[in-house]
Amino acid sequence: MKRMASFGLIEPYWKTERAKHHLQELKTAIEHFSNSKPYIISAEDDIENEVHRIRVKFSEPHCWIHLIAGDIFYCLRSALDQAVYYLAKDSFPYPDWTQFPIFDEDTAETRKRFARYTRGVDSEAVSFIKSLQPYVGLNREPLTAHMLWMLNKMCNIDKHRRIPIRGCATDISFKLPPWASVTKTNEGCIITVPPSRKLEVAFDPIFSVDVSFGDSSEGVEIGVEGIEEIYNFVREYVLPRLARFCK
């Protein structure tokens, strides 16, 4: 962390400071969402099965939560790109070809692009960046578990569309009579009671909320803890090691 105070990578560190601000903002927004009783209650009589059903459906998180998450990913991705720029700037005045390469496969094309993005960067720094590529160590962990792969994927999603988020209740508790049964669903829960006793049901559900970001069809879906892990990886692991190569 000694290099943080130097001018070498100070601007990438500023980006991570902004990401930290957004991360706290995200946690606060999710807490407010959780405390707002984010559910809709509806009821129906199932005459055929002689039961009365009460459906508790989890509400969609506020759009600001999507946007704040996107800001976190952008700041962290930008911090990496800026770090490579400043490393190359030791050799060239304005290296406008740089970015932090993140590739999920090792091919002739990706090697060519890797060399172009890191031209002018110290060879030891290039070796370190290469060691961080998602395709390295695929025998130890799946590609979708790699933090830089997830960061890059989330940034690409955010550039083209709103980051999908999914809110679900991880724990639901009620004060219900013993003759009422509860079944959890992906959207909330269903409470089943005898039709003759439906007017006796009064409850105030308590939710523990979990919000995840990403798209399972694209192989990436992470919660707030996962986002914080990516932040710590960039801020506390990647940048300090790149800072050692600043002249």
Instruction: Provide the structure class.
Output: alpha+beta
How many helices? The count is 6
Strand composition percent: 15-25%
- State the end-to-end CA separation: 15 Å
Over the alpha carbons, how many angstroms does the gyration radius reach?
A: 24 Å
Low-confidence stretches: 1-6
Major beta-sheet overview: 4 strands, antiparallel
Mean pLDDT: 87
Going across the biggest sheet, name each strand in turn. 1-2-5-4
Tertiary shape: elongated
Give the SSE order as H and E letters. Answer: HEEHHHHEEEEEH
Helix content: 40-55%
**How many beta-strand runs?**
7
Which terms would index this structure?
three-stranded antiparallel beta sheet, disordered N terminus, 247 residues, four-stranded antiparallel beta sheet
